[in-house]
Write a structure and sequence with these properties.
By secondary structure, the protein is mainly beta. A 13-stranded parallel β-sheet has the order 3-4-6-9-12-15-20-23-28-31-34-37-40, covered by helices on one side. The protein has a twelve-stranded parallel β-sheet with strand order 5-7-10-13-16-21-24-29-32-35-38-41. Strands 8-11-14-19-22-27-30-33-36-39 form a ten-stranded parallel β-sheet, with no helix packed on it. It has three helices and 49 strands. Among the domains are: 340-549, no CATH class; 550-618. A hairpin with a 6-residue loop joins β17 (284-286) and β18. Bound molecules: calcium ion (4 copies). One calcium ion (CA) binds at residues 108, 115-117, 119, 121, 124.
Length: 636
Amino acid sequence: MTKPGRILSVAIASLFLAGCTGSVGKQGDAGGDDVEVYDAGDDGIGGDDGVSGDDGGGGDAPEDGTAQDADGGGGTDEGPCVDIDNDGHCRDVDCDDHNAAVNPAADEVCGNAIDDNCDGSVDEGCLTGDAYYVDKDGIGGTCSDGGPGTIDQPWCSIDKANSTLQAGETVYIRAGTYQETIRPDNSGSSDTTRITYTNYNGENVTFTQSVYCLRLIDKSYLTVTGIKFYNCERNLYIQNSHHNNIVSCEFDTPMGPSTWAGSRVYDGSTYNRITHCIFSRYGNESGSAGAWDDNGCILDIGNDNSVDTSDHNLVANSTFFHGGHHILGVYANYNVVRNNTFHNEEWYECHRPEIGDLCGDRDVILNTSDPDGNIRNVIEDNFIVFAGVPPDQVSSAGLSVRTQYNIVRRNVFYFCDSSGVALSVDGSNHNDASNNYIYNNVFYHNGYLLLDDWDPRKNGLMLARWVDDAGHNSMTNVAIKNNIFHENNLHAIYYYYVDEAEQVVADNWEEQGDPGFVDLTGQADPFDFTVFDFHLMPNSPCVDNGGFLTSATNSGDNSTSLQVEDAGYFSDGRGVVAGDIIQMEGQTATAAISAIDYGANTITLQTPLSWQAGTGVSLPYFGDKPDQGAHESNGD
Ligand SMILES: [Ca+2]
Ligand SMILES: [Ca+2]
Ligand SMILES: [Ca+2]
Ligand SMILES: [Ca+2]
């Protein structure tokens, strides 16, 4: 197989800046439709400027609310209606077809950072409390912090808003460049009585060149929406803060240099939601010959160097690209990362003339400083692609997993320099990727190393115990099911000092020929997620070629208490999204999960089902069995 012609993105940085005024279309297109915030208008962030839309990466949501172009990939051969959550709305119009509470007939729920009614606006109609205006340039009238803060007698400073706003109140920020910090003195009190900072009527509002541009310390129930943060030392820092929503904002090019992370959610911050945002461009090479190093990341959750229970946060429907060491790091528990796009092809200056003096790095890393610590994050429905060559190594994977009991499902990994996913164990056993659940992903065209020639990295998925000695835990019980591996360099899966027999590997499509994707033509492009379409053609050999994830160990007669061999395949929603929907073997009925006791392998269902012991248990499927790959087909 020939080495693919990977695109090096020399010109892309300048494109993105221009995108603030509307020309970064591929970012927006990648995510699907444009998102408007509070019906904010046409011109600002959330309009045509590329903030990721409803289906940012998942590919299941409407492009424009019509039934055409259903899959976000431009394909039209998906076959009949796919309604995974059984809410009566096919996935071409259902912007979350894994949640029956979200569909075009639903009521918008305020304060949840979700577009519940699939109209392209998040939490529209929700700002009903007292409103104030900050207008430093006096667009609506001469500004004064001593005035009433109305639209024609606005305040001048964000500081005035920071010290004034109470729960339930909103500040509308008028167009301009603010060299200040959003740092509220107060908290909101619930999802529906938030303190909200938003751009006014879609106007272009930029915060820049402060030490912190958005800083929450010990605050809860804040919402910030529709604002661009550019070239702040630190863009978004959320510390010991909870239930905050960051929606339809852009975080670009933090200037650093005295911080590792351009943005952070840390110090025990929980239940925060970051949705429909763009995060981009932070990192650099340091060192000298023989000691090059890669620095910086776009967004970290938790702390890589100490125990930090920043748990139950949501990162969704967002666009991420270009980090120095990585893009997104998760060092905590029960976080959900879904429907995002990540790419980190070579973009920053480094010492490698053979690849254009540019380096990239991995996309996403799950890690911990706590031996055997950090568990049960959910990484689902993302595009994780184009991991690039770092300065200090010769290759990198798309997703590096070094913690346990995570769910990695329905993601698409392609054109990563090394493997699409690498699971690893290290000598201190801080890093141990045993007990993970890797299912229904697509691994396409990974492991075509630009510089390295080491066979273990030339594969779709790598499980690596770096040294074969007693100081390294064995990696065991990694479930690898229902994945499609296609045109990866050497192998589908590679086990490096890891025993395949100690894993749970079943029902994968392992380089067995054409899997029947809707569209693999076109030139791979890190900024265009519509080039390929990984839905299955009706005649795909991968339709009904997967297996049930686990099986029932009890029987139930109109029961809501389901015991299974291994409940770890399923998510209870981690407190930030809806729990999974399940479907039993040989049945068409489905039921949503309301709770999971992982220790007892007991699942509590919202609605009763009946089953025999030994019955297969899966996510919803059509036909006789689940399909392989990321998108279940209704191929009737
Ligand atoms: Ca549906
Ligand atoms: Ca909506
Ligand atoms: Ca909502
Ligand atoms: Ca099927």
